[in-house]
Amino acid sequence: MKVRLVPDRESYKRMSTEDLREAFLITDLFEAGEVKLYYVDVDRAVVGSVVPTNQKLKLETSQELASTFFAERREIGVINIGEPGVITVDGNKFELKHRDSLYIGRGSKEIAFESSSASKPAQFYLHSYPAHHSFPTKLIAKEKANQIHLGSEKDANKRTIFQPIRPGVVESCQIVMGFTELADDCVWNTMPPHTHLRRSEIYLYFDLAENARVFHFMGEPSATRHFVISNCQAVISPSWSIHCGAGTSRYSFIWCMGGENQEFTDMDSVSMTELK
Question: pTM for the full model?
Fold first, then answer.
């Protein structure tokens, strides 16, 4: 497990492009046959990926967690963006198709991932936060997620928000997790932007063609910065930062939040006139 210590709201303004990318971007996820994990000091999040091929891959603890097993004091959200696969939690098997989700409750001791086909592996994206209570592990199929339709073709931001791990669908301590699909010919997400000081957020951009890119904007409204992001890269968004983007073509992204408040609509809107 690698560790990311994220700069504060003043330090980032003086950083170079490479310094910003090193601090806020995660670029080496979804390697075949590997578990990749990052510990982020913002809200003590763990973000990572699991891509099983010829054998099962187990989710193990590490010294950064100081625990006897990974979920001893943590809850986990998983979304599969690859081919079908299976997650086994303490002997119980959960089959995840493309874009299905699994909430794994605190106290789950043995967690293993496998693909239904080694040549067409699953791609499990996971997110974890500390948890104060044990809630049941639950599978949420894509079609069972809460859906919100926003934007318009005129504004190039028509999109569907899928909310599989949220109050009313799954009980959790902190995690609110889901994904957004942009409509054809639409490229903007989360614009006008917002912040939410009660929680941080991490975005994973995917469904990008090889030569496509997303321009992700972060920072305080009066001092924005941007990253050029390619397929299956994640960006850390602290509570004080905006988080919006535009692509060279349509794309999808997974968002996951943790912190004080689970209300999805708890946002501090930013006026377009404030952006610089």
Answer: 0.95
Yes or no: is domain 2-274 CATH 2.60.120.10? yes
CB contact at 8 A, 230 and 198: no
Query: What is the spatial distance between Cα 20 and Cα 71, in angstroms, rounded to a whole number?
Result: 31
Spatial distance between the Cα atoms of 104 and 213, rounded to a whole number of angstroms:
32
Q: Are 208 and 247 in contact (CB under 8 A)?
A: yes
Where does 32-107 show beta strands of DSSP type E? Answer: 35-40, 45-50, 57-58, 74-80, 85-89, 92-96, 101-104
Find the mean pLDDT for residues 114-143: 97
Strand order in the sheet with 111-115: 57-58, 111-115, 85-89, 92-96
Residue 249 DSSP code: S
Q: Is the pLDDT of residue 263 over 90?
A: no
20 DSSP 8-state letter:
H
**Angle at CA of residue 84, ends 81 and 88, nearest 5°:** 100
Q: Cα–Cα distance between 112 and 259 in angstroms, integer?
A: 27
What are the CA-CA distances from residue 251 to residues 68, 83, 229 (Å)? Answer: 39, 18, 11
Q: Which two tokens stand for residue 227?
A: 């990253």
* Segments making up each domain of the chain, as ranges: 2-274
**For residues 98 and 59, is the Cβ–Cβ distance under 8 A?**
no
Confidence grade of residue 100 (pLDDT, cut at 50, 70, 90): very high
Bridge partners, 49 (sequence order):
36, 125
Residue 162 has pLDDT above 90, yes or no: yes
